[in-house]
Amino acid sequence: EVQLVESGAEVRNPGASVKVSCKASGYTFTKYYIDWVRQAPGQGFEWMGRIDPEDGGTYYAHEFQGRVTVTADSSTSTAYVELQSLRPEDTAAYYCVIPVSAWGQGTQVTVSS
């Protein structure tokens, strides 16, 4: 069974950075892309970026260029998303996703002074 387990909730001040992890199991880690999406309160899902764990290739949504970094560690089957220069409007639940197949449980990130 494919499973994605994310790290726990985070609280940050504006201007800080946050890094969320996503531990994959139940399949060959390098076989599928992993996407990161987020959902702010009362909003729809917003795609942030994608990584190909096989070669580390990344793709980012234009609105996050320069602020987001997606990485993957094949030795631990773990993907990461790091978001810098946090703003209150970055408060959201962040999800790792294998397209069409599986979702992480979500990580709540709250940005507040």
What percent of residues adopt helix (DSSP H or I)?
A: under 10%
- The run of helices and strands is EEEEEEEEEEE
Can you count the beta strands?
11
Helix/strand class: mainly beta
Strand content: over 45%
Radius of gyration, in Å, reads 13 Å
Number of helices: 0
What is the 3D form? Answer: globular
* Unreliable stretches: none
Largest sheet descriptor: 7 strands, mixed
Taking the alpha carbons of the first and last residues, their distance comes to 40 Å
Q: Give me the oligomer status.
A: single chain
**How much is the average pLDDT?**
97
Q: What's the structural blueprint in terms of helices and strands?
A:
Blueprint: E1 3-6, E2 10-12, E3 18-25, E4 34-39, E5 45-52, E6 57-60, E7 68-73, E8 78-83, E9 92-98, E10 102-103, E11 107-111
Parallel strand pairs: 2-11
Antiparallel strand pairs: 1-3, 3-8, 4-5, 4-9, 5-6, 7-8, 9-10, 9-11
General description of the model:
With 113 residues, the chain is an all-beta fold. A hairpin with a 4-residue loop joins strand 7 and strand 8 (78-83). It has strands at 3-6, 10-12, 18-25, 34-39, 45-52, 57-60, 68-73, 78-83, 92-98, 102-103, 107-111. The chain is 0% helix and 52% strand.
